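subagent[fold] <- orchestrator: predict structure for attached chain, return tokens only, no commentary.
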Amino acid sequence: MRIGKFGTSTWNVPSTILNGTENAQAAFARGFFDGDGCIDFMNQKLPRVRINSTNSKGLKQLKKLLDNMDIKSKINGPYKRQDKKFIYELLLESRSIARFIRLIGSNHTKKRIRFTKIMLRRHQGLIKDEDNPPMPGSPNMVGHQIG
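subagent[fold] -> orchestrator:
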């Protein structure tokens, strides 16, 4: 299955994935997240789950795939990086992070550990689903939210 040339901004979510089963969609999202996603904590407290790409069209397709699984997100950008390329950020809404962890998850060891910490904090009542970090979430970048 070809999704575009490696390292380019021309990749897309294949139609076989977009029209495929939820398991196939989750596996694609997991692989993409493992490669280009990150987890951090705002103010050492609020979790953020983000996926970055130079391809806004591809991120919109990924957002649609997540929407189909009732995982809500927003696309922010473009942000200008130090190398002068523009980047877009798909940022999960706080209320969808737990669902993302349950349905998508990660095969990346460090990301799995962070997901475990998020779920533990949530179980302890330290994170509420309505907590919502400010948007956009990337310091030293100027950008705006796109549809």
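orchestrator: received. Logging for downstream: The beta strands are 37-42, 46-53, 73-80, 86-92, 145-146. Residues 15-146 form a domain with the Endonuclease I-creI fold (CATH 3.10.28.10).
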